[in-house]
Design goal:
By secondary structure, the chain is an alpha+beta fold. It has 16 helices and 8 strands.
């Protein structure tokens, strides 16, 4: 499908923008009908997809209406590249505000807001998933999962001779298209963990007060921030919700909403996207051609997948540490730029301030269950700490690959050239980590104990020494 650049779209009259979407709708409907005629999708699948693609502009307008009920008019609307995380800028490097005209089903935009705490909230609106990709997902994922569930339920009859239980389970199963909820999707990124939780509450708890025209089924909501570490092998964190709406014709309209921490999105999600594509490519090759491969070749492909998954975990772990450094640095700023210049003494005998304690308790993200060592967690003796600090102060590009050739040399060279003020800032981060170490340790132990109480066995986690 043709890609449309925002900077060209906004110069077109509204009628021409609508015409572009009408052409795309026609192409999508033709693709759907062809897939139905070929028997690749069922009649129910065809009807479900047609409800989305008959009037792409109309359904997209309903999604924006829901956003408006939450956030009102954005401060800025930018053209956004989901592969690089970059936005369009002017000749001075300033973000270009294109206005709401740029928000269409075939462009990718980032709507920028500021919450009551003056923290940024970004709502990324990617293009509507093409019918080609939606059908592929139905064929290769959703319908296959549904049929697997049916076969599993059938065992109740053939193995346990329990027809009544089989009928109950079968009625509870949703057709494959009911799990295809990301034809329309939004990604909301927030600065801190507490902001992410606030957005979740806004979507799930305040519906009655706001009288919103959609609902969210809590049973469909997946919150990875609540997962035990042993259940989150890749250290990936987000919240995924399904926003159920109705079109003007009162037909179901489902939207996938992902809520993420901005730092994790920038330094992990954007970087691991290509790696996941590599994994899917290898898995697809194994699925199609494994019968032609010998056992050695199959093991090699599986080893490649494991290596790539390990790379994803390392990138995610570094991004989490990057985020935690940002949180600890904010506590440092509260002390050094707020309380101390005003000669305000500490609230507690251990030299800590309650505001900083509340910040760390709410926003520090547990990295591992290993003992938190304040002397090494954020010290300059570790290369990852140096990298995270260089990113924090903008001395190294966001897409810098710490696993690339000569990465260590680049990191150490840039770190050695820090100014005296920058070195003092880094030292201050370590000092704050030392001062609030008992609180961070309690948060780690609370999460570890909650996992034990859930009956989960603790799996080995990344060692914290040297970090």
């Amino acid at each position: 499908m043709e890609e449309y650049q925002v900077k060209k779209i906004v110069n077109l009259p509204n009628e021409e923008i609508d015409l572009i979407q009408s052409r795309l709708d026609a192409e999508n409907l033709e693709t759907i009908n062809k897939a139905y005629q070929e028997g690749r999708i069922s009649g129910n699948d065809c009807e479900y997809l047609t409800d989305f693609y008959s009037d792409g502009m109309g359904v997209y307008r309903e999604v924006y209406r829901a956003l408006y009920e939450f956030f009102r008019i954005p401060e800025r609307v930018c053209a956004f590249d989901t592969k690089t995380g970059k936005i369009d800028t002017d000749s001075n490097g300033n973000p270009i505000h294109y206005g709401l005209k740029a928000v269409t089903p075939f462009t990718c935009t980032r709507l920028e807001y500021v919450d009551k705490f003056n923290n940024p909230i970004f709502v990324i609106c990617p293009p509507m998933k093409s019918a080609v990709r939606a059908i592929e997902k139905l064929e290769c994922e959703c319908n296959i999962d549904y049929h697997k569930s049916v076969r599993k339920a059938s065992n109740l009859v053939f193995e346990q001779e329990d027809r009544e239980a089989f009928c109950d389970v079968l009625q509870s199963l949703q057709p494959g298209n009911k799990s295809l909820n990301d034809i329309l999707r939004l990604t909301i990124t927030c600065k801190y963990l507490s902001d992410v939780e606030r957005i979740k509450r806004l979507f799930t708890e305040n519906r009655g007060e706001l009288k919103l025209n959609f609902y969210i089924n809590d049973k469909e909501t997946r919150d990875r921030f609540l997962l035990p570490l042993s259940k989150n092998a890749k250290r990936y964190y987000d919240i995924k919700m399904i926003m159920h709406q109705l079109t003007k014709d009162k037909k179901p309209l489902n939207v996938e909403v992902q809520v993420k921490v901005q730092t994790l999105y920038e330094y992990a999600d954007l970087r691991t996207h290509k790696i996941y594509e590599q994994i899917r490519s290898i898995e697809a090759e194994l699925s199609r051609k494994s019968y032609l491969m010998d056992s050695t070749e199959i093991r090699q492909k599986q080893a490649q997948i494991q290596i790539l998954n390990n790379r994803i975990r390392k990138i995610n772990e570094t991004a989490i540490h990057q985020y935690n450094m940002t949180v600890v640095d904010k506590a440092r700023r509260i002390e050094d730029e707020g309380y101390r210049p005003l000669r305000i003494g500490a609230d507690n005998v251990d030299g800590t301030y309650n505001q900083c304690r509340q910040l760390l308790n709410k926003d520090y993200l547990v990295e591992s269950y290993d003992g938190f060592n304040p002397d090494t967690a954020f010290s300059a003796d570790n290369e990852i700490n140096k990298l995270c600090f260089l990113r924090l102060i903008g001395k190294i590009d966001k897409d810098f690959d710490e696993f690339g050739d000569n990465a260590g040399k680049v990191i150490n060279n840039k770190f050695s050239r820090l100014s005296l003020a920058e070195k003092e800032r880094f030292k201050g981060i370590t000092e704050v980590a030392q001062r609030y170490a008992p609180l961070i340790q309690r948060k780690i132990m609370t999460k570890a104990n909650s996992e034990v109480n859930l009956g989960s066995s603790l799996s080995p986690t990344r060692q914290n020494s040297g970090r």
